[in-house]
Amino acid sequence: MLLSYDHGIIQIASDVLGEIAKRRILDKKRNETFEISVFLDKFLGKYHHTKEEKFLFPFAVKSDPSLVPDVDALISDHRRMEKLLSDSVSISKAEGAEADLYAICSEIAELSASHINKEERRVYPLIEAHLSSEEDHEIYNECKEFTDRNFGYDYLRNSESFAMIMQSVVLGPNYMKTDMSKYVKISMPGSDNSA
User: Fold this and answer.
1) How confident is the model at residue 92 (pLDDT cuts 50, 70, 90)?
2) Which range of residues forms the domain containing residue 129?
3) Residue 170 belongs to a domain with what CATH number?
4) I need a labelling partner for 41 at 20 to 30 A (CA). Which of 104, 151, 163, 187 fits?
């Protein structure tokens, strides 16, 4: 599925926030917590969620109206995540409130994992079942145009690099919880995989 690779990047970054909370290392990694929160706020709220809500979900509910409750629940998750990330950015930028920030980071990691699981295991397969190659190509092109116009052609590659660097900086160079190979990049003829 077109947006699955985004999920790998999201999972890496949110896992790092979860590990910061689990290991109680804000005293050493508060700046990184802020940087990851800012990154996820942009990557999710302005990039990934927009692609799903503007291009993929309208097709999904049009082609299979039984998906409306699933899509509504996913959009509700999006709003919840955006609120958590906004709070994480605000709190991690200031001093103190460690207990609140640990709770928010844990919730971000948990919500990311459950949300991605719902999309990858239930909703995306149902969408793919109704998606013709022409429709797939059309959604791909809309997402690519949106990405190139608003973020630049190398945004996905740069985002993956950022997530991997933060994972290494915060958790060590040998830490790897998220295997990016399970998040397949879809290549369209002549594409550069940037959507």
Assistant:
1) confident
2) 4-182
3) 1.20.120.520
4) 187
